[in-house]
Write a structure and sequence with these properties.
This protein is of the alpha/beta class. It contains 10 helices and 14 strands. It has one domain: NAD(P)-binding Rossmann-like Domain (Rossmann fold, 3-Layer(aba) Sandwich). Helix content is about 40%, strand content about 15%.
Length: about 300
């Protein structure tokens, strides 16, 4: 299979590229400064799309950092612009790819408390929900060309390194990794391993529409912090007041740390996908390479 990947240098994209290549697929990346096996964004044309069986778009400005007006504009426009470029090229292609896997996020649902959210749940309110609505809508033109459109809505992706888990590990080791505000907000997570396996499943099966990418076993933030503390053998009991998080991190901190999103990966489960890392404690030990008897 010939696959075009935008955002292939990111956390998920780089792992996905390696996995696709290991199973014999040919992968071409998209980059502003293309090197070998990459194309530039201005080369995304209807004619180019004829060379690919599938396109996977994971591109977009990082949401990390304080959300100034300029930052929020970059977050939104980077996602909508790249998606539109790809979608319109596919829609105008004489022989379009069979599938577009267009990334989205759990932020689509907004802050929903204890509500269990499957793919048919309504969209929410707030900046991230609006970003996700526009992001997904930008991909709709491909359906007119008969290309199968799948929109994985990712929860928190856990992997070793400088990403979300790396920052959580650091604050836990510094003994400040306790509950955030009430700690009752739901964190829907998935291991990088299962995130990549989910994308391969979507690529290889005739699924379409939104698909929640998260373990069937989300945790409250308080339980998440306690479990990570247990794995690292550090206490995780010192709370961080919600007002302090809002003052220090602004809107970004509110949405990423305090919002509650309880995803149910109903589509994946119903279609027979099996998670290799369904439970948090075992997943953390595996990701961080910490044995059960480690000190």
């Amino acid at each position: 299979m010939n696959v075009l990947i935008a955002g292939g240098s990111g956390l998920i994209g780089s792992a996905l590229t390696t996995t696709l290549q290991s199973r014999g697929d040919k992968v071409t990346g998209v980059s502003r400064s293309p090197s070998l096996d990459e194309v530039a964004w201005n080369e995304i044309t209807p004619e180019l799309m004829e060379d690919f069986d599938a396109v996977i778009n994971l591109a977009g400005e990082s949401i990390a950092g304080r959300w100034t007006k300029a930052k929020k504009k970059k977050i939104l426009e980077s996602r909508v612009a790249t998606t539109s470029t790809i979608a319109l090229a596919i829609a105008d292609s004489k022989n379009p790819p069979q599938c577009l896997i267009q990334a989205s996020a759990a932020g689509f649902y907004g802050n929903r408390g204890d509500e269990i959210l499957n793919e048919s749940s309504s969209t929410g309110e707030g900046f991230l929900a609006e970003v996700c609505r526009q992001w997904e809508a930008a991909a709709f033109p491909v359906e007119e060309a008969g290309t199968r459109l799948v929109m994985p809505r990712f929860g928190i992706v856990l992997a070793e390194g400088p990403g979300a888990l790396g920052r959580l590990v650091l604050v836990t080791k510094l003994l400040i990794g306790g509950p955030l505000a009430s700690g009752r907000q739901w964190w829907s997570w998935v291991s990088l391993n299962d995130a990549v396996r989910s994308l391969l499943f979507l690529l290889d099966h005739e699924l379409s529409g939104p698909v929640n990418i998260a373990t069937p076993n989300p945790e409250t933030q308080k339980k998440f912090a306690a479990t990570l503390g247990n794995v690292l053998r550090r206490p995780a009991v010192i709370p961080a007041p919600g007002f302090a998080i809002r003052m220090a991190l602004g809107e970004m901190g509110t949405h990423l740390l305090l919002d509650s999103t309880r995803l149910n990966p109903e589509t994946l489960v119903n279609e027979g996908f099996e998670f290799e890392d369904p439970h948090l404690q075992e997943a953390l030990r595996k990701i961080l390479d910490i044995g059960a008897s480690s000190n």
